[in-house]
Design goal:
single chain; mainly alpha; 2 domains; 74% helix
Length: 99
Amino acid sequence: MACAKGEKMNPYKILNIDYHADKRKIIVAVALAMREKNFSVQEVAIAQKEIMNPMTKAAHDFLQFIDVKPMQNQFAPIKQQQKKIVFDLNRLSNFDENS
């Protein structure tokens, strides 16, 4: 199950942990991931490095765990309103041309 070339790596999926895991749980998860051999040693090592670094961990936490559904639902009515405005403007421009 190696990551495809160009695919974004999810270190939490590779190590099978959640984002609340402490250093001890990460080290145990690394050992288990090495034993299971679902991912290459390099991928497991990179996942560990990414999660142990506070900066990259914050980036992965944001990218992996942000829930955009509420925002999509919030902006859906605005998109429909924008479509209506464009439709109304098209009707107006057609009316002007026919005058």
